[in-house]
Structure formats: C-alpha cells, structure tokens
Design goal:
Elements: H1 6-17, E1 23-26, H2 33-42, E2 47-51, H3 55-67, E3 74-77, H4 84-87, E4 96-102, H5 117-130, E5 131-141, H6 148-160, E6 167-172, E7 183-189
Parallel strand pairs: 1-2, 1-4, 2-3, 4-5
Antiparallel strand pairs: 5-7, 6-7
The structure holds S-adenosyl-L-homocysteine.
Residues 28, 30, 51-54, 57, 80-82, 102, 104-107, 113, 115, 119, 142 line the site of S-adenosyl-L-homocysteine.
C-alpha cells in the first residue's frame, strides 16, 4: 500500500513539528514506544515529559527508555495528562512543540483504565496554551474498545469547534476498513 498507514503518519507529523533541543509530551506513555521515538527526535538537549496514570506503564516505559540509553532526556510522571500545565515547568511554557496521545487502554493491562473525554480534552486545552506556534498535537483515536466511540465523538466535536484562527485541525482516516482501526486527529497551534 502506498498510502501512509496511521502510526507512521503520526510519526511524520511529529517529525515535522519537533527539532533537536525541543520540549515535547507523550501524554499516554503506555509501553513507551512513542517516548523513545520522541526522545530520539529531541536529541540530548531536548526533553520529553511522559504521563501515565498506571504504574505498569511507567515501569515498562522506564525499562524501554533506559535500554535505549535515553533516560537523561525523559521525565516520567505517574500523573494524569490533565495535569500537564501543572507538571511541565513554567520555564518551558510556550516552548512545547509536539505532543502525542494514544487513546484507549493499554493492551495486556487493566482494560478498566482508559483515557476519558473530559480529561483528554482538558489536557489538549492545556497543551494548546503552553505550546509554541506551529506545535502539533497528534491524537491517535482507538474507537473499537468500550467507551472508545464516546471519546471519539467528543473529540471530533471538540476539535471541529476549535477556532480556525487558533488552530488547524486535520483528520486522517481510512474510511472503508473493518473493525474500527485507529485514526488521527492532528491539531497545529497557530
Ligand atoms: N490503544 C492503544 C494504547 C493506548 S495506551 C493501542 O492499542 O496501542 C493508553 C494509556 O493511557 C494507558 O497506559 C493508560 O494507563 C493511560 N491513561 C489513561 N488515562 C490517562 C490519563 N488521564 N493521563 C495519562 N495517561 C492515561
């Protein structure tokens, strides 16, 4: 297939927005794959702030990050992403250039711990306020799981109503695939 698949496209968007030395956010650590990717993008002078509410995710991400020798530039926080503005130091406000959310639940973990529309939207609002112009937030929306459709609809509504003067919003989705595969909403701050 020539069309870019969802997860590679998410990475392309972040590569466009993030450069060495930048401050970025992994809003849902999960197993830490995206954190490793972001940590490599920001280089040794940058910082990745990683959030997850589950100890299991913090542990798995920590292992993966240290195996890659990237611990020096990653700050792992066992806090909800709805605390982003509080947890990211004020000196970095206005300097965040990229953020990613992988929504839903962590495969192989407690399926009761899922991202929720209110906290996801609160985190997006905070990130938009502390990002640099042209910073990009990538939302990977998993809507096949329990509660996923509700979160999808809330995010489509919220993102669709973001003022065009403050943000560009993109939806990237294969629309004829079975089993509700994930899709992307990307928000670029203006
Ligand atoms: N569905 C994706 C993986 C999503 S992982 C896939 O299949 O690849 C989502 C992660 O978000 C989980 O590790 C979960 O613990 C975390 N999470 C849930 N609520 C959160 C919150 N408020 N803040 C930060 N992380 C949260």
């Amino acid at each position: 297939m020539k069309l870019e698949r969802i997860l590679p496209f998410a990475k392309k968007l972040l590569e466009k927005a993030v450069k060495p030395g930048d401050i970025v956010v992994d809003a849902t650590l999960g197993n830490g794959h995206d954190t490793v990717f972001l940590a490599e993008l920001v280089g040794e002078k940058g910082k990745v702030y990683g959030f997850d509410v589950q100890a299991q995710a913090i542990h798995a991400a920590n292992e993966r990050i240290s195996q890659h020798g990237l611990s020096d530039r990653v700050i792992l926080l066992q806090n909800g992403h709805e605390e982003a503005a509080l947890r990211i130091p004020a000196e970095y406000h206005g300097k965040v250039t990229g953020a990613i959310f992988n929504l839903g639940y962590l495969p192989g973990s407690d399926k009761m711990v899922v991202t929720r529309p209110e906290t996801t939207i609160s985190a997006i609002e905070q990130l938009l306020s502390i990002m640099a112009p042209e910073g990009i937030i990538v939302l990977v929306i998993y809507h096949g799981n329990h509660g996923g459709a509700i979160e999808r609809d809330a995010l489509l509504q919220y993102c669709g109503e973001l003022d065009q003067k403050t943000a560009h919003v993109l939806q990237y989705q294969f629309i004829n695939q079975q089993n509700n595969p994930p899709f992307i909403l990307a928000i670029e701050k203006r």
